[in-house]
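Risk register update: the risk of archive-format incompatibility is retired. Evidence:
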Amino acid sequence: MLESLLADPGFYIGFIIALLATGAIAGVLAGLLGVGGGIVIVPVLFNLFPLLGIDDGVRMHLAVGTSLATIIPTAIMSARSHHKKGAVDLELLKTWGPAIFIGVIVGSYFGSNAKGWVLTLIFAVVAILVSLNMAFKKDNMNIADQLPTGPFRALLGFIIGGFSVVMGIGGGTLSVPILTAFNFPIRRAVGTASAIGLIIALPGTISFILSGLGEASLPAGSYGYLNLFGFLCIVPATMTFAPIGSKIAHTINPSLLRKA
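Archived output:
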């Protein structure tokens, strides 16, 4: 892979610029929406990898694993920015964290063993459903006045962790709509979601690395289902732009934030 890139410097430079731009957009969205950036990174990597001759059988796994790895530093930067503004609900993280973590473990096992087309289908369907919900849901249309407690809260956390790691996202794509549906303030939902991203991304990345070890069709520079080239190009931009997204989140109108 690297040999072909070096043989065509123009393509090499263009590829890096594309990944840097992806990282910048993902970083802004991570800070703005608490989504970790994976909702942008996974589709971009999935569509760029064929240009490098990466086998279709592993490109979605590689996109998911690489995306999860980029979310780790991004989530740290984003969560720190939101925490400084008092927008991270630490008590909720304590009660939700274990269920989310269990969901990540189960989802990681499923995702690392599933066919690539299954991961692609799950990503597409969930992303569309969440988009429709956030776009057309009325501001005051909530399921309940507060987040439930007990087993149902744990089930919601398990679902967030399981689906997020399979999709290679930080959890905000699911946790923010769920929290706002239970009358959670949008800015606090975004801030808390940024911290949830770390709970999902760290064990998820480890799992995808381990499950991909020994896979013969992976390109050079890959450790399991983590591609270092993609990771190193994306992360500097996400870490730079995540605090910017966080600042915007605390100045923009909450209704506009939901639409965004």
